Amino acid sequence: MASGGDSDGIGWPYVAFDIDPRVVK
Length: 25
Fold this sequence. Notes:
Layout: H1 12-19
């Protein structure tokens, strides 16, 4: 997936859910 917050527009939902589902806002 995206490393950290590299894709802050496309891969953000995947990154957020991959780390913590509560991070997504």
